[in-house]
Design a protein that fits this description.
Number of strands: 2
Distance between the termini: 60 Å
Helix content: over 70%
Number of domains: 1
Largest sheet: 2 strands, antiparallel
Radius of gyration: 19 Å
Number of helices: 8
Strand content: under 5%
């Protein structure tokens, strides 16, 4: 039970980290040209909103609006009726991009010959941080920077990784369902129900988030290094 609770905490921290990384890239890249940023992020936006729409249909909701045109602080949005599965339905819809975008990225990575070290179902999520850092380092050093396919993949890694990140609305929508899930887990455990399968579900969810975070974090490091080099070059001119 303790391990399962820690798993949920790790997933929550991963989700927050993914959100913060995507926001950093949003600020860094949209600063030069918002229109160019919107166009570059379009594949990730489509994947993000499509993930919401597909799971909404699975939860018994009806799609009332689908848009990948920016509105306010969002790059797109999906409108849908109330899911037939209460509370949990909204949570499933909110976390859908955390699964949908990494799956698409895995398929694209396979096409371009990029290898991901995908953890086993039973991996210890407490070791997820080490896996994330080691995976990011090996990802950066393992790319063939002389191959044009690498840069195409990095583009998709950027847009789909950012697309996997939850919006503020997603985070707010998923909280009630997460509270219910935690309460249900405690209840099942209290009555002696075997909930080992839930550990596997959370393991795969955490692994999926890691798959999105590794290339996105790598791109973030590359963007940060480029910004640092630009800053140093500009500062050198004044010396």
């Amino acid at each position: 039970m303790l391990i399962l609770n820690l798993n949920m905490i790790i997933i929550l921290l991963q989700t927050i980290a993914l959100y913060l990384i995507s926001q950093y890239l949003h600020l860094s890249l949209s600063f030069t040209s918002r229109i160019l940023y919107i166009v570059l992020m379009l594949p990730g936006t489509i994947a993000h909103e499509t993930s919401h729409a597909v799971v909404a249909l699975l939860m018994g909701a009806r799609i009332t609006e689908f848009s990948v045109i920016p509105s306010g602080d969002t790059l797109g949005h999906v409108g849908y009726t109330k899911p037939k599965i209460p509370i949990i339905g909204n949570t499933a819809i909110s976390i859908a991009p955390l699964i949908g975008c990494p799956v698409i990225l895995l398929l694209i990575g396979r096409y371009f010959g990029v290898h991901f070290d995908f953890p086993q179902t039973s991996f210890d999520i407490l070791a997820g941080s080490r896996f994330l850092l080691d995976g990011t380092l090996s990802f950066i050093t393992g790319l063939d920077y002389m191959n044009w396919k690498t840069y195409v993949f990095l583009y998709f890694a950027l847009t789909l990784g950012a697309g996997a990140a939850p919006s503020k609305t997603d985070i707010i929508s998923m909280l009630p369902g997460l509270i219910v899930i935690i309460a249900a887990i405690y209840s099942l455990n209290y009555f002696g129900v075997n909930i080992q399968y839930l550990y596997n579900v959370f393991s795969w969810l955490s692994a999926g988030i890691s798959i999105a975070m590794i290339p996105l974090l790598a791109v973030t490091i590359i963007v940060g290094m480029l910004k640092l080099i630009t800053f140093v070059r500009r500062a050198w001119k004044f010396i």
